[in-house]
């Protein structure tokens, strides 16, 4: 990974987990539990899934974080991301800065003036992929959106597209940026919208 990409990702991490970031974003994690902690009836598990504000402090010490998602609820009063990402792109037009700037421009143009949930990031450890954990993290956000009758937005990697389609997201379009080092001379990705209930996008 080129050094500029590493620096950009470090800035993203610093933003997400800063004191302001913790107020702005909701981090949802999935854990593996020791065998003695996994014997629960379905009713108890469902109650825990619905509990608001639950954190990992009461999990067994042996529990392991194997994946997480970062969600943001955006409304018309939420400050725009594009002015900051556009400035970073102008100062240093590396691939990562151009990528984030284009994503923000597209999202904020299409979703201007609307209230919605935004899936900013989802990651699962490689050895825990293909186990339905990604769907669990996606469904957390779609359930929130359904309860409030608002849509949800995300940008997808090729690997994650199937999970998002299965969860009810639909592809609105394909975004891209030029990149001479890419095989086709550009990098592209789909942006997707979930509308499980009648929403403000209709």
From TrEMBL:
GO terms assigned for molecular function: acyltransferase activity, transferring groups other than amino-acyl groups
SUPFAM superfamilies, alphabetized: Acyl-CoA N-acyltransferases (Nat) (SSF55729)
- The record's region (Disordered) falls at 28-59
User: What start-end ranges are recorded for coiled-coil regions in this protein?
Assistant: none
Give the N-acetyltransferase domain ranges: 108-157
Family matches, as PANTHER family? GNAT FAMILY ACETYLTRANSFERASE, N-ACETYLTRANSFERASE DOMAIN-CONTAINING PROTEIN
Q: Please give the name of this protein.
A: N-acetyltransferase domain-containing protein
What is the organism field in this record? Ustilago trichophora
Q: According to the entry, what is the taxonomic lineage of the organism?
A: Eukaryota, Fungi, Dikarya, Basidiomycota, Ustilaginomycotina
């Amino acid at each position: 990974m080129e050094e500029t990409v590493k620096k950009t990702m470090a800035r993203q991490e610093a933003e997400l987990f800063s004191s302001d970031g913790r107020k702005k974003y909701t981090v949802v994690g999935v854990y593996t539990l020791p065998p003695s902690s996994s014997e629960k009836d379905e009713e108890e598990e469902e109650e825990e899934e619905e509990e608001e504000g639950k954190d990992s402090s009461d999990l067994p010490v042996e529990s392991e974080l194997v994946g997480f998602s970062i969600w943001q609820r955006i409304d018309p009063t939420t400050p725009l991301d594009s002015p900051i990402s556009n400035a970073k792109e102008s100062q240093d037009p590396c691939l990562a800065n151009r990528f984030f700037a284009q994503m923000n421009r597209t999202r904020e143009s299409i979703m201007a003036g609307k209230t919605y949930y935004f899936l900013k990031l989802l990651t699962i450890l490689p050895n825990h992929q293909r186990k339905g954990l990604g769907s669990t993290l996606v469904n957390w956000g779609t359930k929130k959106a359904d309860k409030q009758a608002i849509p949800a937005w995300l940008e997808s990697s090729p690997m994650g597209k199937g999970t998002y389609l299965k969860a009810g997201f639909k592809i609105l379009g394909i975004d891209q940026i030029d990149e001479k080092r890419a095989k086709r001379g550009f990098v592209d990705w789909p942006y997707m919208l979930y509308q499980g209930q009648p929403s403000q996008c209709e």
